[in-house]
Amino acid sequence: MTTVPRSTPAPLALAGFLAAVTAVxxxxxxxxxxxxxxxxxxxxxxxxxxxxxxGPVWTVLYLLIALSGWLFWRAGGTRRDFAWYxxxxxxxxxxxxxxxxxxxxxxxxxxxxxxDVVLAGTLVVFRRRSAVAAALQLPYLAWxxxxxxxxxxxxxxxx
Length: 159
Known about the structure:
Elements: H1 10-31, H2 35-41, H3 54-74, H4 79-101, H5 105-127, H6 131-157
């Protein structure tokens, strides 16, 4: 992902961030056509959320991710700094196909741990220029850490 030029009008830049995040969501949804059946077919921990919860949670998170990126852009984020954000989007897009389409639960666990690290790095980088942009990443990191724990539990329970 290249940085949106500063000459781009803010509403158009926001649309670009929304489009990038929507592309990630579309990749996930295409790879997750059987996700409900896969998820319900796995042995899960007692604290696993119901399948219907994931859609609403991710809808809110994707909006926050796009808004966070846009605010960071407005605050003068550099291309180098945006590499963290872009890496997070790529890793986010990769997890669903690994877990649901490929059934590679252990590989998905390794991948999501890398995503956790990248999101923490994104928070640090974003915080340097915009506390609000960084704060908007916190729910995403919190949910991803929860998903990491769930992924780990599924790996252990489904050996």
